[in-house]
Amino acid sequence: MARNVSTGTKIGFTFAAWAIALLLFSPILWVLLTAFKTEAEAIANSPTFLPQNFTLENFSAVQDRSDYVKHATNSILVSVGSTLLGLAIGIPAAWAMAFAPTKRTKDVLMWMLSTKMMPAVGVLIPIYLIFRDLRLLDTVHGLTLIMTVINLPIIIWMLYTYFKEIPVDILEAARMDGAELYNEIVHVLVPMAVPGIASTLLLNVILAWNEAFWSITLTSGRAGTLTAFISSFSSPQGLFLAKLSAASLLAIAPILLMGWFSQKQLVRGLTFGAVK
Amino acid sequence: MATAQTRTLSRIMMAPAVIVLLIWMIVPLVMTLWFSFQNYSLINPMMTGFAGWANYIYVLGDPSFTQSLVNTLILVGGVLAITVIGGTFLALLLDQPIWGQGILRIIVISPFFVMPPVAALIWKNGFMHPGYGVLAHLFEFFGLEPVDWFNQYPLFSVVIIVAWQWLPFATLILLTALQSLSEEQREAAEMDGANAINRFYHIILPHMARSITIVILIQTIFLLGIFAEIRVTTGGGPGYASTNIAFLVFRTGILSNDIGAGSAGGVVAVVIANIVAFFLMRAVGKNLDA
Fold first, then answer.
1. CB distance A212–B115 less than 8 Å?
2. Distance CA B33, CA A125 (A)
């Protein structure tokens, strides 16, 4: 951006942008600050900005009372597990469609995308009953399966748009040099495909981590993920505001960090490659 | 180039994905359709058999359905209006020469990564609580009566929470689109003496039109299914004041154990989503050729 503007204009724009950005960020800042306050301070009549009596006891209380670590473990298992499973199914499919396209490839891709349009409530009841009968309700592997299926179209689409950008000429050049199929894949294709796969992995872990519909309806105490766990705070008893903040902070911090790193790829993933 | 061998190989490579998605698309949906024509209640197991259109008449005829449909439209429309207009404005602002652009981008996108229950509970307890919420303190500071948001304006409160989550998404997509507008195009317009408003209407807006369409369509798909935000804040109430179609199906099918009626509601939700999806697929499909 090499546009010439006066310093005054730049100061004005900068001020306005920061003001709006901080306003949008304020709920997250509130969580960050409240998590380190005592419960009494959190609901005090004269509110404080920074914690007056900095404390870490909310974090240990959350763990003691409701076993935070168990829910976090479930979240990790479901989000990472479903993403890896999705990649295992999605990579071959996207690979085939990108490197050996046929007349029907476009239709297949559109059809896969269309399964993502189906509203979850449209199939909630049968899935709930099937899960009940197969004893999959409130299990980590049951939720992992659902999460794999609902994110599979996004995984395939994202991988497809990345693989599509790998120049096919490079394969022919390698072949001319007498490369074996094995060498071709390991030394030429894999290094070019890895960044795309990594971005896909990152975005899908984020999506699965934050997924709230199936986690809330299909799990409870045993296999509950962090989304289900936090939801259980909706009908609280006693002093809880600081503890809610501590639990929330732990639930969003890792994903916030991952999100900051992947925000460029996020655009491509969430618009199915339509905006890059 | 595609020999018979590679064709067979690529079919095998695609098979798992196609089979999984085929099962996912057909089995539950057929079951929902089947249940929607059955008398099937977990509370009253004696009631069985073919129900005809009874479930549909029951669901569609109930005032709660009309209200949920209207609420769904308000929810989707309200959030879209806030996020698209706000997102365009914010993207334009962030595209200006400012200090700390990179950090600002990260700060602005942050709410999008906050999981829905956390977002809803922060707003419910930290900001909109009539006793100790930040907004209540602000109102008191200005000598105003604190508002009991979720009882007085339940649907509006949900709109605010959801808009907060999706404004960053719209901003990020539109900013990305804006930054792909070439510098030459802008400079040419400036040289021609076009003022800021003319440049916005004749160059920037047409350039962003496609991205705005995509933002609207993708958000609509997600907004039709808003669930967790309602579940942890209002529970759909008071009455049905903040119940949308998605939550109505959950209430009928899972909370009230009426499988038949819940399924009929589910079918209606699928029909509504299909109408939206039709337009989304056309928009995305067009971009595939490009």
1. yes
2. 11
Interval A26-51: pLDDT, tens: 999 999 998 888 777 777 777 778 88
What are the residue boundaries of the structural domains of chain A, listed by start?
Answer: 57-270
Across the interface, of A96, A121, A227, the residue whose CB is closest to B269 is: A121
The alpha-helical segments, DSSP class H, found in chain B are 4-36, 54-61, 63-94, 101-109, 116-121, 134-141, 149-152, 154-179, 183-191, 196-199, 205-224, 228-233, 245-250, 259-289
* ipTM for the whole complex: 0.85
Pick B273's closest partner by Cβ from A117, A210, A258.
A117
**Where do the structural domains in chain B lie, given as residue ranges?**
34-289
- Shortest Cα distance from B117 to chain A (angstroms)? 6
Percent of chain B at pLDDT exceeding 70: 94
CATH architecture of the domain covering A57-270: Orthogonal Bundle (1.10)
Fold of B34-289: MetI-like fold (1.10.3720)
Across the interface, of B16, B98, B249, the residue whose CB is closest to A13 is B98
Q: A96 and B277 in contact by Cβ < 8 A?
A: no
- The per-residue pLDDT for B88 is 93
The token duo for A2 is 């090499």
Q: In Å, what is the CA distance from B10 to each residue of A96, A153, A169, B28?
A: 5, 18, 19, 28
Q: Which two tokens stand for residue B17?
A: 């994905």
- Bond preceding residue B238 cis, omega within 30 of 0: yes
pLDDT in tens, A10-19: 888 888 999 9
CA of residue A80 relative to chain centroid, distance: 10
Selected for mutation to probe chain A from B14, B38, B254, B259 (highest A CB count within 10 Å) is B14
d(CA B43, CA B72): 28
The tens digit of pLDDT for each residue in B75-130 reads 999 999 999 999 999 999 998 888 888 889 889 999 999 999 999 989 988 888 87
Pick the closest to residue B102 from A7, A14, A249 (CA basis): A14
How many whole angstroms from its chain centre is CA B109? 17
Structure tokens at A119: 């509203």
Q: How many Å from the N-terminal Cα to the C-terminal Cα in chain A?
A: 19
* pLDDT of B79: 96
Encoded tokens for B286:
């067009």
pLDDT tens for B22-46 read 999 899 889 988 888 888 877 777 7
Query: With b meaning 16 or more CB within 10 Å and e meaning fewer, what string describes A4-27?
Result: eeeeeeeeebbeebbebbeebbbb
